Amino acid sequence: MSVTIYVADARHIEYAGAICKLMYISAQERGTGIAERSLDYIAGKLAEGKAVIALNGERLAGFAYIETWSHDRFVANSGLIVAHEYREQGLARRIKKKIFELSRRLYPRSKIFSITTGLAVMKLNTQLGFKPVTFSELTDDPEFWRGCLGCRNYDVLVRNEHRMCLCTGLLYDPAAHHRPQQKLLTAGRTILRLPMKFKHK
Ligand SMILES: CC(C)(COP(=O)(O)OP(=O)(O)OC[C@H]1O[C@@H](n2cnc3c(N)ncnc32)[C@H](O)[C@@H]1OP(=O)(O)O)[C@@H](O)C(=O)NCCC(=O)NCCS
Fold first, then answer.
1. Mean of the pLDDT values across residues 30-53?
2. Residue 87 alpha carbon, nearest atom of ligand 1
3. Of the candidates 151, 172, 197, 162, which has an alpha carbon nearest to the alpha carbon of residue 109?
4. 6: number of Cβ within 10 Å
5. CA nearest 161: which of 131, 135, 133, 132?
6. Are 162 and 145 in contact (CB under 8 A)?
7. Terminus of the chain with fewer CB atoms < 10 Å: N or C?
8. Is the pTM here over 0.90, yes or no?
9. What are phi and psi of 42, to 5 degrees?
10. Cβ–ligand 1 contact at 168 (below 6 Å)
11. What is the pLDDT of residues 110-127, one digit of tens each?
12. Residue 80's domain spans which residues?
């Protein structure tokens, strides 16, 4: 397989139709969980560079996009899809890594999240440092949750007042991955922090 993953741009708009079709077919097959997006919406994500696209030559192999919520405090990595003939060869892992890196670059302070019922996405996000959380830790932007309208479990979400559903929430909080400074500057002097093993008990 010789698949290259690109940060999308206007040249990729021509793939919007094929992406929507693949999403529709996969949602039918799974019977749950992939938010329906219009052709214009996907074309917009491609043109804005808020998506990554995997191509084998000129053939679509996979896709994922970024959405922002709560005034950019949250970023959702959504719409991960791999064309059937490229599945189970590690392509979703590569796409996830690329969309994660793009999210971190565009929105370094934002919390990144996904909601999913899929084991593959749970595994991939966990490997990138995401932690499982309750929905209370995710965006409360009603527009995000409206994206669940097309899911067959939407009634479960409403019945639970948006506090829980069949999806698992996965969150990457950049603050939790911030490395503490190795040096402390005190009154103009640099105090080096010693690793624990050199400290006296
Ligand atoms: C889910 C999907 C993106 C996985 O793509 P993929 O390229 O086959 O995934 P990868 O080969 O990169 O596999 C990544 C990991 O997920 C696992 N995995 C892949 N498909 C899986 C499946 N259907 N069920 C359980 N685990 C799966 C792999 O074994 C691998 O695990 P590992 O880390 O233990 O090796 C693809 O099947 C797809 O497009 N499905 C339809 C759309 C969809 O469900 N999207 C997710 C919406 S939340």
1. 87
2. 8
3. 172
4. 14
5. 135
6. yes
7. C
8. no
9. -65, -40
10. no
11. 999 999 989 999 999 999
12. 4-198
| Both tokens assigned to 118 | 């899929």
- Which tokens belong to 153? 């479990």
Check: CB of residue 65 under 8 Å from CB of residue 42: yes
At 163, which CATH number?
3.40.630.30
Per-residue DSSP letter, 106: H
Distance CA 19, CA 43 (A): 9
Six-digit token string for 79: 């719409």
Total residue length of the chain: 201
From atom 19 of ligand 1, which residue's Cα is the shortest distance away? 120
Distance CA(134)–CA(172), nearest Å, equals: 13
What is the chain's mean pLDDT, rounded?
Answer: 89
| CA 82 to ligand 1 center in whole angstroms | 8
Residue 43 and residue 178: Cα distance in Å, rounded? 34
Number of domains in the chain: 1
